[in-house]
Design a protein that fits this description.
By secondary structure, this protein is mainly β. Helices cover 6% and strands 44% of the residues. It has two domains: 22-245; 258-332. The protein has helices at residues 7-12, 243-246, 254-263, and strands at residues 22-24, 30-31, 38-42, 50-52, 68-71, 78-86, 90-101, 113-121, 129-140, 146-152, 162-169, 174-181, 186-191, 205-207, 218-223, 231-240, 269-270, 274-276, 281-287, 293-299, 304-306, 313-321, 324-332. Strands 1, 2, 4, 5, 7, 12, 13, 14 and 16 form a nine-stranded antiparallel β-sheet that branches. The radius of gyration is 20 Å and the shape is globular.
Length: 333
């Protein structure tokens, strides 16, 4: 296999270092359901959630990779992607979104309609994905060709989403981060916050009006095509247990890369079926370029990880060295 490996390649996939539960760059095209762990849980086809060439980007956020998806209020398919259940503390998700127009979007005076949220399977004789938390709502803004975003913690009672005070123009990329606190059953929405390790002290909107109890665990992320959501392009979906995991800041400079390379993976071109590490590393994970987790380990300095069972190709290796998240791209020959 020809050795093709550049620093730019590492920069493009640096986001994997912070993706603890889900990182979805949509590195494929066509119907999303059935690819990379996504499944349909509601609605009908045709009118699928579809991935196509094109990206959204946001200043300060790790470089986008892969493609993006589109949703429409004229379609009905809703999809989900599972992850390791989170039963305590807080859980976050983020996405880049851009309203393509306001066709089909509810008026500014309405409660709007939701299009991104967490999910938990209900219990009973016919379990189904019907418990939805931390829903992002959208409605038309006050001005022409603008939209307004809101958040709802849960269902029940006379729950109504809490909207932010800022409207955003169509075809503008907006960075949305949601925090859900299982202990308090509260959802917070941060709009166009600064990526990095520090969570903003003030949210754009906070909601706890839904009276349904917080679930015992959250283990799904969902994309919904509501009848009044309008038409959106969506990219770079992340789910994690900290703000930093869903809002990874910046890209790796060359100097950062060199330091990471010397202290993390020593042989980025793997010819002998073993990855060798230059430092003690915790929570080592190996991902395919589509985000599939294929290996986990903790290693010592000069220790190795056997990858003989992996096919030839490029992978992303992430881990924690000296309490810092690091990542590198490797090529297995």
């Amino acid at each position: 296999m020809k050795k093709i490996f550049t620093i730019l390649g590492v920069v493009a996939v640096a986001a994997f270092a912070n993706a603890q539960l889900v990182y979805e760059p949509f590195s494929y095209t066509g119907s999303v359901s059935g690819q990379n762990g996504w499944a349909t849980h509601s609605g009908s086809t045709p009118g699928q959630v579809t991935a196509a060439t094109g990206n959204l980007s946001y200043s300060g956020l790790s470089t986008s990779t892969g493609n993006s998806i589109t949703i429409s209020s004229s379609n009905t398919e809703d999809i989900n992607k599972g992850f390791t259940a989170q039963t305590t503390g807080t859980i976050y998700y983020s996405a880049l979104v851009s309203a393509q127009n306001t066709t089909g979007t509810t008026a500014n005076t309405a409660t709007g309609d939701y299009f991104l949220h967490f999910g938990t399977y209900s219990t009973g004789t016919t379990p189904q994905l019907s418990l939805f938390q931390a829903r992002i709502y959208v409605r038309k803004g006050v001005g022409t060709d603008t939209v307004n975003f809101g958040i709802l913690n849960n269902s029940g009672g006379t729950a109504a989403p809490t909207f932010s005070t800022t409207d955003f123009a169509i075809n503008q990329t907006v960075f949305l981060v949601v925090k859900y606190d299982l202990a308090t059953n509260t959802a917070s929405l941060f709009i166009n916050a600064t990526p990095g390790s520090t969570e903003p002290t003030t949210a754009s909107a906070v909601n706890n009006t839904g009276t349904t109890a917080a679930p015992t665990g959250i283990d799904y992320f969902c994309v919904r095509q509501g009848s009044s959501t309008g038409n959106f392009q969506i990219d770079e979906i992340r789910v994690g247990s900290t703000y930093a995991q869903v809002a990874p800041g910046g890209t790796l400079a060359v100097s950062d890369f060199n330091k990471t390379k010397s202290n993390f993976v020593k042989n980025t071109f793997v010819k002998n079926d073993e990855i060798t590490f230059g430092a003690d590393a915790k929570d080592v994970k190996v991902y395919t370029l589509t985000g599939q987790l294929v290996k986990t380990a903790s290693v010592k300095a000069n220790g190795t990880l056997n990858v003989a069972d992996l096919t030839e190709g490029n992978y992303i290796v992430t881990g924690t060295v000296n309490n810092q998240a690091v990542s590198q791209k490797i090529l297995k020959d």
